[in-house]
Design the sequence.
């Protein structure tokens, strides 16, 4: 079964840091670009970041640029999001998602597989 | 950056009704447009990509059309299980912006 499982969410104080992980299974992780998407409570979807299959292409939303870092370890079938200088407005469910296209080499596409999400709460 | 808008923001329709949701991009995005369905408390699900291509396993009552700046998602016969919020998303280039969503419920 194709599956993505996020972990690492929790409660953190403003200005703090958190590292999210996404464990992939059921497909060849190293062939696909990956994304992070977030959803604040009661709000819509917001794309956060993208990393290509080889990590050669990375994009960030302006709202997180300079504070968040996306990375991946293809040997461990894992995607990461290092989040620093967290703000109250970063409070959200964070989803990892898979690029629809196999071997797209940095060309973004739609997101065909989503994890269940992990909740990040930034509050004092 | 290209902005995505959707209309209406919410709608209520009867079972069996034809439902149409509109998505507009502030600049042309060719057909790099996806539609997602998010049921209450659930994870988003890809319905349509490339503006009009149905994702595998999605019921045929869903269809998409459009190119450039104007796109539509149509549900030909609304079913109770279609109660959800629907989002469009552009993916011609980063940022991969989502529309604000359209909430659909049953009258």
Sequence:
């Amino acid at each position: 079964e194709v599956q993505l499982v996020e972990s690492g969410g929790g409660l953190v104080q403003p200005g703090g840091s958190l590292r999210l992980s996404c464990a992939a299974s059921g497909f060849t992780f190293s062939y696909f670009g990956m994304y992070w998407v977030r959803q604040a409570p009661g709000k819509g979807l917001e794309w956060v970041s993208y990393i290509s299959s080889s990590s050669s292409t990375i994009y960030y939303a302006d709202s997180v640029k300079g504070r968040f870092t996306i990375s991946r370890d293809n040997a461990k079938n894992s995607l990461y999001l290092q989040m620093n200088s967290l703000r109250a407005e970063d409070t959200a469910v964070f989803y990892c998602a898979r690029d629809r296209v196999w071997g797209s080499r940095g060309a973004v596409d739609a997101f065909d597989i989503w994890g269940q999400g992990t909740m990040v709460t930034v509050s004092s | 950056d290209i902005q995505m808008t959707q209309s209406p923001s919410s709608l209520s329709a009867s079972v069996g009704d034809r439902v149409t949701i509109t998505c507009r991009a502030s600049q042309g995005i060719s057909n790099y447009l996806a539609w997602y369905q998010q049921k209450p408390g659930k994870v988003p699900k890809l319905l349509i990509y490339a503006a009009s291509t149905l994702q595998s396993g999605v019921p045929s009552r869903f269809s998409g059309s459009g190119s450039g700046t104007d796109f539509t998602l149509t549900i030909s016969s609304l079913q109770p299980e279609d109660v959800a919020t629907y989002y469009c998303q552009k993916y011609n280039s980063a940022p991969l912006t989502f529309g604000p969503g359209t909430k659909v419920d049953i009258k």
Q: What stands out?
A: Chain B touches chain A at residues 1, 34, 36, 38, 43-46, 49, 55, 85, 87, 89, 91, 93-101 (CB under 8 Å).
